[in-house]
Specification:
The protein is an alpha/beta fold. It has helices at about 5, 15, 35-40, 45, 55-70, 90-95, 140-145, 160-175, 190-205, 210-215, and strands at about 25-30, 75-80, 125-130, 150-160, 175-185, 205-210. It has a 6-stranded parallel sheet with strand order 3-2-1-4-5-6, sandwiched between helices. Helix 6 (about 90-95) links the parallel strand 2 (about 75-80) and strand 3 (about 125-130). Helix 5 (about 55-70) runs parallel beside helix 10 and helix 8 (about 160-175) packs parallel to helix 9. It starts with a helix and ends with a helix.
């Protein structure tokens, strides 16, 4: 999606957000940068999805991770990790009713689909394994964040309309201050990306750019 289109949505600049995303109380959340969601060699790519739409967001995520580490913000990596045994009945039924039995087999542990793609956690980072969209559901993410004194989340990842959206809403419901980095998220469709960002900024989050976050953390 072009910068001009994203600019139609309200964004806060570096000066405005600097006092809101103090590194000591902030975590950079990296959602689902994995083989099956981001790599051409993953499940989506093998089924003909154009994965190139993710690359600009991944470039910005790389920059944000480096900036967070330099500033002293926490970095937290989310991953979907599944097996046939962990697929819920609701998920399997959804795909069966869509005429796609077995279509839910993504981010499996046995074929590399759940592996990180282009990003690599370091010792001391938060790592969360989840079964579906919301990074808080059925995980200890909330406990880990609160244990480190985190009050604010700067959220990035794939896809904007699914796991990023679910995680941002769940964070807000748990009383975190939420910022979504519009150019460090991606969805497989401009309408999905724009629509999700628009809905999030209206309800639970402020939108920011990667340059704004990096600029705020450099102050």
């Amino acid at each position: 999606m072009s910068e001009a289109v994203l600019a139609e949505l309200p964004h806060l600049d570096a000066q405005a957000i600097a006092p809101m995303i103090v590194p000591e109380k902030t975590a950079l959340i990296v959602v689902d940068i994995q083989t099956d969601f981001a790599s051409p060699a993953g499940l989506l790519g093998r089924h003909g999805v154009d994965m190139s739409v993710a690359e600009p967001a991944l470039d910005n995520i790389d920059r944000l991770i480096a900036a967070a580490r330099k500033a002293g913000a926490e970095v937290a990596f989310m991953r979907v990790v599944t097996s046939p045994e962990t697929d819920s009945n609701a998920l399997k039924t959804l795909y069966e009713r869509r005429g796609m039995p077995g279509g839910q087999g993504i981010c499996r542990t046995d074929d590399g689909g759940a592996d990180y793609y282009r990003v690599k956690p370091e010792p001391g980072d938060i790592e969360i394994e989840k079964l579906m969209f919301d990074s808080f559901h059925g995980t200890d993410l909330d406990e880990q964040l609160r244990g480190r004194g985190i009050e604010t989340l700067v959220i990035t990842g794939i896809s904007t309309d699914c796991c990023v959206d679910s995680t941002a809403r769940a964070a807000f419901h748990r009383d975190y201050h939420v910022f979504v980095v519009s150019d460090a998220c991606a969805a497989f469709g401009d309408d999905l990306h724009y629509g999700a960002l628009n809905a999030l900024q209206k309800n639970v989050a402020f939108l920011v750019t990667s340059d704004a976050v990096i600029g705020a953390w450099a102050k």
